[in-house]
């Protein structure tokens, strides 16, 4: 219902609004990867993941994980 109201108010279709939203969405690139488990990554935004916090506490340097 909310999308329909926004579409009506802006004289656009729901599809046009969703397509415009896709263009505005920023893709976050991965900046850090766990060297022990390559499936674990971090963009550098938000809280540091547990694997990175533990590695830093063990004396590793964040640059060791930079891509």
Can you give a write-up of this model?
The protein has 3 helices and 2 strands; from the N terminus they run ααββα. By secondary structure, it is mostly helical. The protein is rod-shaped, with a radius of gyration of 20 Å. The termini are far apart. 3% of the residues are buried.
State which percent range the strand residues make up: 5-15%
Helix content: 40-55%
The value of Rg in angstroms is 20 Å
What is the mean pLDDT?
A: 87
Main sheet: strands, sense, barrel? 2 strands, antiparallel
Order of helices and strands: HHEEH
Q: In terms of per-residue confidence, which ranges show pLDDT below 50 for 5 or more consecutive residues? A: none
The count of DSSP E runs of length 2 or more, i.e. the number of strands, is 2
Helix/strand/pairing category: mainly alpha
Strand order of the largest sheet: 1-2
Taken from the alpha-carbon principal axes, the silhouette is rod-shaped
Tell me the number of helical segments per DSSP (H or I, 4 or more residues long): 3
Distance between the termini: 43 Å
